[in-house]
């Protein structure tokens, strides 16, 4: 069996026992607060916003689909979805010596629907390892608080079969790691600005595999089949724009889509956020973004104002790798943005490791750090979180936290996802969620297995703690 890489994310089934390694989280928190019992463990890629009427809900996956009303700001409120069309969660059938069920690893929402990506695990006897197979996407929509339409599977047979067959012929030495499939969306504060896409092909650790030199982009449309909206090859073929969607920015390994300036832009950066929904100095909540923030595959925080964005940005954000930039005389992202004066730029070396996640509040950004690609054999550990202060939306300097965030999230923890529920508020006044992780084993990382999973900050409690 071959191993499927889902975009930049990888699933690894591991069993952890108790570890005797030292973990400063315990000492720091024991001195101040009591750790809650972990109820949301595991590998969590992202946290998706979804609205039903005037209520905002949050969705995530840690093998199964879980959700909660964003107003439920207490420990233990997450609910697990099962049945109603969803397959069984992953379990091992001893009689047949095989896994059954689906492991859900990513979840995205648009204005109306929720989409969950998962796969069936299988045992690869040739390499004595458990590997994913049979990519699946299920979708549904909420009909009332806690009630959903029957979950339906979106057939990907026609999308994946030709792609898989080409790669499998040249994949005997890398166990399917050239296979790339990435579910992503805007996750905007305003539900009217939320869209979801599926990219098949392109970006993977084996990007230059001769059979992996093209990408196809599909727009998710709920009950309708995913709509093929763009494609590209390593020859840099262009796509025509379509209304509000700037498909000419779609690249071989596009990672994100972001709404600003009344249009949807595609970027080759994993962690892209805007200041939509934040409050200005007069307390007015921004209905439209004025700044865009992102991290390159490095240790800098980058930003630009919506007003400064023009056609010259397309090449930089479509082809961040130097071999493409050099064709247009663009030597580096830092050089490019630094030429745009006060409206664009970067803050250098905000962390000792890569910036891979961002939570936006009205007066600051919370940056999560770690390895940008979990399958990289040279992957680094994380450096926890960093706070960058904002001045009317523009990043200014790093600063200390108003909460105990830095005592919970620090080296070597990787912060794979961050989300501030209400960005119109300050850091200490809004609920914030974080997905904490580490690479290899808890013992080798110097961490504790019970810290891998979801953590939360609730203003009423005034402290970060395990979910």
Explain the overall architecture.
With 467 residues, the chain is mainly beta. It has 7 helices and 31 strands. It has helices at residues 24-30, 157-168, 313-318, 322-325, 333-338, 405-408, 442-445; strands spanning 48-52, 55-61, 65-69, 79-80, 91-93, 98-100, 103-109, 114-124, 129-140, 142-144, 147-148, 152-154, 181-185, 196-201, 214-221, 224-233, 245-246, 256-260, 263-267, 272-274, 291-295, 301-305, 344-347, 354-360, 364-370, 385-391, 394-399, 414-420, 432-437, 453-458, 463-466. The strands form 9 sheets. Strands 1-2-3-4 form a 4-stranded antiparallel beta sheet, with no helix packed on it. Strands 7-8-9-12 form a 4-stranded antiparallel beta sheet, with no helix packed on it. Strands 13-14-15-16 form a 4-stranded antiparallel beta sheet, with helices on one face. Strand 8 and strand 9 (129-140) form a beta hairpin. The longest helix is centred in the middle third of the chain and has 12 residues, at 157-168. The model is unreliable at 1-21 and 372-378 (pLDDT under 50).
Summarize this entry quickly:
With about 475 residues, the chain is mostly beta strands. It contains 7 helices and 31 strands. The longest helix is centred in the middle third of the chain and has 12 residues.
How do the strands line up in the largest sheet? Answer: 1-2-3-4
Name the overall outline. Answer: globular
Tell me the fraction of residues in β-strands, as a range: 35-45%
C-alpha end-to-end distance: 35 Å
Structural class call reads mainly beta
Instruction: State the helical fraction.
Output: under 10%
Number of E-state strands: 31
Largest sheet: 4 strands, antiparallel
């Amino acid at each position: 069996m071959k191993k499927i890489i889902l975009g930049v994310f990888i699933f690894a089934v591991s069993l952890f026992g108790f570890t005797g390694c030292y973990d400063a989280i315990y000492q720091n928190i024991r001195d101040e607060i009591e750790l809650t019992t972990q109820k949301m463990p595991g590998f969590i890629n992202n946290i998706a916003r979804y609205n039903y009427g005037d209520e905002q809900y949050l969705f995530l996956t840690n093998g199964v689909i879980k959700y909660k009303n964003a107003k439920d700001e207490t420990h233990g409120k997450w609910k697990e979805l099962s049945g109603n069309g969803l397959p069984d969660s992953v379990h091992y059938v001893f009689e047949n010596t095989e896994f059954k069920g689906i492991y859900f690893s990513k979840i995205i929402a648009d204005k109306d629907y929720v989409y969950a990506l998962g796969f069936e695990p299988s045992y690869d006897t040739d390499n004595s390892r458990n590997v994913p197979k049979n990519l699946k996407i299920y979708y549904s929509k909420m009909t009332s608080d806690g009630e959903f339409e029957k979950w339906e599977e979106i057939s990907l047979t026609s999308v994946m079969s030709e792609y898989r067959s080409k790669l499998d012929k040249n994949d005997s030495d890398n166990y399917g790691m050239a296979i790339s499939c990435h579910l992503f969306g805007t996750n905007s504060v305003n539900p009217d600005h939320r869209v979801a896409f599926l990219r098949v092909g392109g970006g993977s650790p084996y990007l230059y595999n001769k059979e992996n030199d093209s990408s196809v982009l599909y727009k998710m449309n709920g009950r309708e089949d995913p709509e093929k909206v763009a494609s590209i090859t390593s020859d840099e073929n262009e796509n025509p724009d379509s209304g509000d969607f700037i498909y000419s920015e779609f690249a071989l390994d596009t990672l994100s889509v972001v709404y600003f300036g009344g249009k949807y832009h595609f970027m080759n950066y994993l962690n892209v956020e805007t200041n939509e929904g934040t409050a200005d100095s007069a307390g007015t909540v921004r209905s439209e973004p004025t700044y865009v923030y992102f991290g390159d595959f490095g240790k800098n925080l980058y930003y630009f104002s919506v007003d400064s964005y023009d056609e010259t940005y397309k090449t930089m954000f479509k082809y961040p790798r130097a071999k493409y930039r050099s064709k247009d005389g663009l030597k580096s992202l830092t050089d490019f943005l630094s030429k745009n004066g006060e409206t664009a730029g970067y803050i250098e070396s905000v962390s000792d490791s890569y910036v891979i996640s961002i939570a936006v509040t009205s007066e600051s950004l919370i940056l999560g750090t770690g390895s940008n690609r979990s399958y990289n054999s040279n992957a680094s550990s994380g450096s926890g979180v960093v706070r960058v202060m904002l001045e009317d939306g523009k990043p200014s300097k790093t600063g200390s936290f108003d909460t105990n965030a830095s005592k919970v999230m620090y080296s070597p923890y990787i912060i794979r996802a961050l989300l501030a529920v209400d960005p119109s508020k300050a850091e200490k006044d809004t609920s914030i969620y974080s997905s904490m992780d580490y690479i290899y084993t808890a013992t080798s990382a110097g961490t504790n297995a019970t810290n891998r999973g979801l953590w939360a900050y609730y203003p009423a409690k005034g402290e970060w703690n395990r979910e």
